[in-house]
Specification:
This protein is of the alpha/beta class. It has helices at residues 3-10, 15-22, 38-51, 63-79, 100-108, 124-132, 159-164, 190-201, 217-226, 233-247, 252-261, 270-287, 291-298, 302-336, 355-366, 392-398, 422-435, 460-466; strands at 55-58, 84-87, 113-117, 136-140, 154-156, 169-170, 173-174, 343-348, 370-376, 379-385, 405-408, 412-418, 451-453, 481-494, 500-506, 512-517, 531-543, 546-558. Strands 2-1-3-4-5 form a 5-stranded parallel beta sheet, sandwiched between helices. The model has no long low-confidence stretch (mean pLDDT 95).
């Protein structure tokens, strides 16, 4: 069994599962009407279509919400809806999700139906207010749900099935032995749920012929990858084909964004979305308003699209500068609380649109769940990042008596609280963590090898095989191999402060490979002559016309 087959075996990919995974079949898509309330949502939209009611799509300011909003703007127009507009909340005004003020304003402007994307599952008060004013709400979302749903016409959220039938699912997949007719996969992004609504509407309305909805997959792929949902099952299929659509996208905005980000359409992959397009689109919502990003996605004039894409690129550069300053200040404070199992840092004036990225960087540095709070007068708004068995969202919900609002996912969440409660929040979050009696959590951040490998196994032919496993992402990470007992023959420090390292490794047969680590931890800087076990991914290095296989160094142990 060669190395590629061993990697497939380690991932449980054999027989039919292997064939389906390596060659996703779009036609095997799941029945959208198996999602909760999908029938009610479609019925209400068909009624709105007949009366040509005024519809407001209430989006969200991150990429998932923006792409979902654009999917519905695009498709509803094709279905023949004449009165559709979008509302994107401002992070610094409305904050996340529906607000009563925004709902009242939308209705005052004439909305007769509100359709949410990527939000709304916990908006009981706001939806009740809309109903008081005589306006129906359809929720499409994928975030955590309440025990009792808001009083909307429909709450289309796959997570409802996980709440109602927890024993029928494992890792968001319907168990093979289940006898119930339930939606098979629950980890759709918000844009994925919106896309299922489009598929459902195709069964009732003309204008978007069967198969033509595939042109929406460029947006679905972008939102799915950037929201870091698991890239398996339907998500994998949508991203697999979405990347092909993106390579030939008809959208001037995405063409322009790829150009300014230096992403070549013919080589676009999931990494291009997560590290090239995504940060630029998110930058506008983090610094000012996400409306700029939505305008770019919906632009029809190429020159206007290019202007907006360049504006997003400039905003992203400014975001990086501001992020670096906040991170430096947060590092000083983190050292003050170094003995806490959960880091909670805060300061006046930090941009709460950026603190989520800072939380992720602190988690990586200290290997601890982290909450970063931006203080603005009497109120603090923050973001959390977690890993392993500690749910950032559950911790927030457990502190309901001292926060203003909060919620999110296990690994990423947001919170708003009175500034005077920050110390109590820090104390209570850490108490919550200790009550869970979690052990060896940092070990969960260490890479797990798909297979052991010899240096002779690492060649371009393997890279061609590994390419069939893309797109990589959550639930389908880039394969990791372990190289046992190899000799470090050369060590090269790189970077303006020698923060990067390149190790040349050699085995007993004399075969060598270069492995690199950027921002390497101290224990990676070993001396030549050291024998080590190494965990790495394998990549192709092209430089000055030369091609070589090299490793991206993830972890090493000195023997």
């Amino acid at each position: 069994m060669d190395l590629f087959d061993r990697i497939l075996k380690a991932r449980g990919l054999s027989g039919e599962r292997k064939a389906v995974f390596l060659s996703p079949n779009y036609d095997l898509k799941h029945d959208p009407f198996l999602l909760p309330d999908m029938q009610a949502a479609v019925d209400r939209l068909v009624k709105a279509h007949e009366k040509q009611e005024k519809i407001t799509i209430y989006g969200d300011y991150d990429i998932d919400g923006l792409t979902a909003t654009t999917v519905l703007i695009d498709s509803l127009e094709k279905f023949g809806f004449k009165n559709v507009k979008a509302f994107i909340p401002n992070r610094f005004v409305e904050g996340y999700g529906l607000t009563v003020d925004a709902v009242e304003r939308i209705i005052a402007e004439g909305a007769e139906l509100i359709l949410t994307v990527d939000c709304g599952s916990l908006s009981h008060v706001e939806i009740a207010r809309a109903k008081e004013l005589g306006v129906d709400v359809i929720v499409t979302d994928h975030h955590n749900v309440a025990e009792v749903q808001p009083d909307a016409v429909a709450v289309v959220n796959p997570k409802r099935l996980l709440a109602d039938f927890p024993d029928e699912y494992e890792k968001y997949l319907l168990k093979p032995e289940s006898k119930k007719k339930l939606y098979p996969f629950l980890d759709l992004a918000g844009v994925g749920v919106a896309f299922k609504l489009v598929q459902a509407l195709q069964t009732r309305l003309d204008g978007l012929e069967k198969g033509q909805e595939k042109w929406l997959l460029d947006l679905v792929a972008l939102g799915t990858v950037c929201d870091i949902v698991t890239l398996i099952d339907e998500n994998r299929t949508n991203v697999f084909y979405g990347l092909k659509v993106l390579a030939q996208t008809r959208r001037p905005g995405l063409k322009a964004l790829m150009a300014v980000a230096g992403v070549r359409p013919e080589t676009v992959n999931a990494r291009s979305l997560g590290f090239g397009l995504g940060p630029r689109m998110n930058a506008s919502g983090r610094l000012e308003t996400a409306q700029y990003a939505l305008d770019m996605l919906t632009a029809t004039d190429p020159m206007e699209a290019l202007r907006l894409a360049r504006q997003l690129d400039d905003m992203n550069k400014n975001r990086r500068l501001e992020q670096d300053e906040i991170f430096k200040e947060a590092l000083v404070q983190a050292e003050e609380y170094i003995n806490d199992p959960v880091l909670v840092v805060s300061a006046e004036g930090w941009n709460h649109g950026i603190v989520g990225i800072v939380a992720a960087k602190l988690l990586e540095r200290y290997q601890k769940p982290t909450y970063v709070l931006a203080i603005h007068g009497d109120e603090a708004k923050g973001s959390a990042r977690s890993y392993g068995d500690f749910s950032a969202a559950d911790a927030i919900r457990a502190l309901d008596d001292i926060i203003t609002k909060g919620g999110g996912h296990k690994l990423a969440a947001g919170v708003t609280l009175p500034t005077t409660n920050i110390d109590a929040f820090r104390k209570r979050v850490n108490e919550f963590y200790k009550q869970l009696k979690l052990y060896d959590q940092a070990d969960l951040l260490l890479p797990t090898a798909d297979s052991e490998a010899e240096l002779e196994d690492l060649h371009e032919g393997l890279l061609n095989q590994l390419a069939t496993l893309e797109p990589y992402g959550s639930g389908n990470p880039q394969p990791v191999v372990r190289l046992n007992d190899v000799l470090v023959t050369n060590v090269r420090r790189m970077g303006d402060s020698n923060q990067h390292v390149k190790l040349t490794l050699k085995n007993a047969a004399g075969k060598t490979i270069d492995t690199l680590a950027f921002g390497a931890p101290k224990h990676f800087f070993v001396e030549p002559g050291t024998r080590v076990h190494v965990w790495c991914t394998v990549e192709l290095n092209e430089w000055n016309g030369n091609r070589s296989v090299e490793g991206k160094l993830l972890h090493l142990i000195v023997i």
